C-alpha cells in the first residue's frame, strides 16, 4: 500500500473516532504538511510503499529531524516539537500495523519523554500595566475583561477564545471553558473580574462568542488572543514576557504564594495529574529560594569581612 493512502485512511479513522478537528489537523501537519514531515522524507528515500518502511529508516529520520531548524525563526526546533512528531509516528504506524497487518517499524523505538516544563510566569507588574493600559473604547473594554479573566482563572488561550455566552455565569462568578480538544472544566473568578466582564457584556454586540473580533465580529482564535496581547505590549513598549501562557503561570504562582493547595490548583488548571502541578510548585519554590539567596547570601557578609581585613592589613603594612 502506498504510504499516502495509508495516511489518508489514518486521518479518516481519526475523524470517525470523533477526535477533535484540531487534533486531526495536528496529525496531518506533523505527518504530511509540515516543512519536515515524514511522508515527504520517506518518498525522497524511495520508501513509497508502507511495507518497505523500516525501523532504521525512521531512526534516521528522527536523527535528521533533531538537526533541523525552525523554518521561520531559524532557531533549533524544541525537544517538545520533535517529541510530538515522534509520538505521531508511533500513533500512525501502530494504526498501520493493526489495520494492514504490517510490521510496526516504530515498535522498538522508544516513546519520547518531554523534559520537565519550566514555568515562566509573566511579572505581576507587567500584567497590571497591560490591564491598566486598556482604553475605554469598545476594544479596550473587551481587552481589559479578557486580561482580567486570564489572571483570575489561569485558563489557556483556547479557553478564552472558545468561551461562549451560555457558559459564562456572571452572577455565580464561574465559567465553563473548553480546552485541549473537547475537554471542559469549570473556572471560578472574582468580583473584580465579574465587574469587568459585566462592563464588556453591556457594550458588546449580541454574538455567541464572549470575545470576538471587533471589526469582523468573528470569534477570536487562540492566535488572535496572542496578537491582541502582543500589540498591547508593543504599544506600551513592554519588552518583558507577556505571552498568554505566562498569565496562566502567573495565576499559579500567585495562588501558590497565597497558600493554595496543590490538589485544588491542579483542578483549577485542568491538569491530568497533580504531578504536573507539583513540578510547577517545585519550580516556584526554587525561584523563591534563589531570590532569598540573593538577598541573604552568607558570602556577602564574608566578602565584607575579607574586604575589611584586607584594608586593615594594607594600612598596617604602611606603618
Largest sheet: 3 strands, antiparallel
User: Termini distance?
Assistant: 95 Å
Count, helices: 14
Following the backbone from N to C, one meets helices and strands in this order, namely: HHHHHHHHEEEHHHHHH
Mean pLDDT: 86
Written account of the structure:
The protein has 319 residues and is mainly α. It folds into 2 domains: 98 residues; 169 residues, hpI Integrase, Chain A (Orthogonal Bundle), CATH 1.10.443.10. It has 14 helices and 3 strands. It has a 3-stranded antiparallel β-sheet. Helix 6 packs antiparallel against helix 7, helix 7 crosses helix 11 and helix 12 packs across helix 13.
Task: Tell me the layout of helices and strands.
Layout: H1 3-16, H2 21-33, H3 38-44, H4 55-67, H5 79-100, H6 124-133, H7 138-153, H8 157-161, E1 168-169, E2 174-179, E3 183-188, H9 191-203, H10 222-235, H11 244-257, H12 262-269, H13 274-296, H14 298-317
Helix pairs in contact: 1-2, 6-7, 7-9, 7-11, 12-13
